[in-house]
C-alpha cells in the first residue's frame, strides 16, 4: 500500500461526515484500502481498477475486512473501469463487469470520487483525468474529487538535474481543469492541508499532498 493511499484513508477517517451515506467511486483502487475505509460510513463504494487478478485481490481484501464495513451497512462493489476505454464494460461474461442497475446508481448518486497515487506516469495521468472528466459530465449531481499524490524527485538525463516531472504534469492538469469552459461544468481546485490526525502507520512526508476538485453545473 503506497503512502498516498494511507494519507487518503486518514483523511476519510477524519472527514467521516463528508462520506456519510454517500455513493463513492474510487479510480485505480489497487488493494482497495481507501474503498474499504470509505465504506465504513458511505452507502455504496464502487472500487474500480483494471485486470481480473487485481480486482479479485480487491474482492478478497474487502471480504477479509467485512467486519469494518458491516457496522455502518456500507456496500463495496468491485468493478472494472479501464481508463483507456470510453465506456464501462457491460458484458456479463467478463468478471467484474457493470450491470445496468449499477451504472444507473453510479451516475444517479455518486458525489465523491477518489484516486490515490496514480499520477506517477504522464500517460496514466492523462488517462485518469480524461476518465474523470468523462465521468463527471455523466453524473447527475455536483461532486468532489479527492486526489492523493506524492511529489517524487527523480534525476533525469534530459535535464541533468533532479526534477518532479510526473508531479508537474499532474499540476498542469489541475490548471487545465480550472480553465476549462465548456458551458456545462465548473471545476474549482484547492489543496487540502495535511494537518489532520494520522491514525494509520506510514511516514507522512512533506511530499505527500491531497487535492480537491469541486465540480458543479454552470448556473
TrEMBL record:
GO MF annotations in UniProt: protein methyltransferase activity
InterPro entries: Methyltransf_16, METTL22, SAM-dependent_MTases_sf
Domain of life according to the entry: Eukaryota
Entry GO CC: nucleus
Protein name: Methyltransferase-like protein 22
Pfam families tied to this protein: Methyltransf_16
Xref: SUPFAM superfamilies: S-adenosyl-L-methionine-dependent methyltransferases
Any one GO biological process: methylation
UniProt keywords, alphabetically: Acetylation, Methyltransferase, S-adenosyl-L-methionine, Transferase
CDD domains on file: AdoMet_MTases
Amino acid at each position: 500500500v503506497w503512502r498516498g493511499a494511507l494519507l487518503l484513508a486518514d483523511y476519510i477517517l477524519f472527514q467521516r461526515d463528508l462520506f456519510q451515506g454517500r455513493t463513492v467511486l474510487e479510480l485505480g483502487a489497487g488493494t482497495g484500502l481507501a474503498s474499504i475505509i470509505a465504506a465504513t460510513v458511505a452507502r455504496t463504494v464502487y472500487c474500480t481498477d483494471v485486470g481480473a487478478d487485481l480486482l479479485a485481490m480487491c474482492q478478497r481484501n474487502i471480504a477479509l475486512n467485512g467486519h469494518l464495513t458491516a457496522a455502518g451497512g456500507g456496500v463495496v462493489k468491485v468493478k472494472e473501469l479501464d481508463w483507456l476505454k470510453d465506456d464501462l464494460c457491460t458484458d456479463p461474461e467478463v468478471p467484474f463487469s457493470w450491470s445496468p442497475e449499477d451504472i444507473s446508481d453510479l451516475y444517479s448518486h455518486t458525489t465523491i470520487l477518489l484516486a490515490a497515487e496514480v499520477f506517477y506516469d504522464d500517460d496514466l495521468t492523462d488517462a485518469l483525468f480524461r476518465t474523470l472528466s468523462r465521468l463527471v459530465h455523466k453524473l447527475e449531481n455536483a461532486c468532489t474529487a479527492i486526489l492523493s499524490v506524492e511529489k517524487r524527485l527523480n534525476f533525469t538525463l534530459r535535464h541533468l538535474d533532479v526534477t518532479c516531472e510526473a508531479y508537474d504534469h499532474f499540476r498542469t492538469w489541475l490548471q487545465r481543469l480550472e480553465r476549462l469552459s465548456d458551458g456545462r461544468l465548473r471545476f474549482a481546485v484547492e489543496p487540502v492541508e495535511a494537518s489532520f490526525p494520522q491514525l494509520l502507520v506510514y511516514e507522512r512526508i512533506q511530499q505527500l499532498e491531497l487535492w480537491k476538485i469541486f465540480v458543479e453545473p454552470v448556473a
